[in-house]
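Sample A.
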Amino acid sequence: MSYDNIKAVIEALLFASEKPLTLEQIKNVLESLDTGEVRRVLSEMQSECETTNRGIRITEVAEGFRMSTAAALAPFLKKLYKQRRVERLSRPALETLAIIAYKQPVTKLEIESIRNVNVDGLMQNLLEKDIIRVAGRKKAPGRPKVYGTTRQFLEYFGLKSLEDLPKIGGLTMPKEKKEETPPKEEMQNAATKPA
């Protein structure tokens, strides 16, 4: 198969696929190339799309590759799809999702203690959208479920991996309130006072 045909096959695979394709998946279809060669061809295709100012880009997301439109063309696509309703995540859902993404694996109780609200409905909604998943169970009394993000999360936000999340400081678990003990002087004064 000629080099141009290999590019054409990869382009067709990316166009036809609903989800990002991994290097391994592309390699298995082509059979004659190893993953390093597939990556090299994809890199060249990415460069061609950008240097020739095409409307399509090949992007790497969620440990795979997919075709997407050039970001600069978004205003034109918005006009085309003006009538189309895009399902967006609510602010509380995004807050909950951020906690899961940065603290995973995390329990529902830990999320609720950070947000100070019940998150049952939000968690169910995020699970139904396949943005989060049950990642296991915590080794603690009651063995609560722990949650993490999915590949769908990476696709939704256009990330290659969790390392691409923006860096933030200060996101720590709230410390449990300890019962304050009065100073020794107050205890001694209380002991000497008549009842």
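Sample B, a different protein:
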Amino acid sequence: MINKFVLTGILFCLLLPCAYGLSEKMNLNYYIDHLNDDNLTRIEAITHIGDLGDVRGTDALIISLRSDGDWRVRSAAARTLGKINDKNAVEPLIYSLSSDTNEYVRSDAAWALGALNSTKAIGPLTEALKDVDPSVRSSAAYALGKFGAGREALLNSLNDEDANVRLAANWSLERVNQTSSSE
């Protein structure tokens, strides 16, 4: 038998979001509709799309990644595409990794490609180890470690001038060695 106070509490928790319009805010379309607002609202909307984890938001995120004029929005879109784990984002992320003018966007694209775990990204990530920005090189090295790939390029990165790149390359080489020893 259910205690009436427990039942009341359960009903309260189920109905409260509707009473305050919170269920609308959990709707993917609510956030997609805000991708044309001011910069900070767009970033917040992108973050919430990632929290929902709904792959139906991929197309809107790809548009933000490719065309938003604010690097912070493109960067948030890249991270979120990695978080929601839709393989349709691989090609746009590869393009951003190799072509975006902002190092934060390229770095987040590298991270997202590692999260997506698509072998299509191995070549572009290996190439990104030569990027002028150390944060991009570091993110690319970590991403390659998630694949257990890029051994030769990672060995070269152990001599990078930046300590974070060397650290990422070392961590990734440990993963590569674990992968090759288990095969």
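Observation for Sample B: The chain has twelve helices and no strands.
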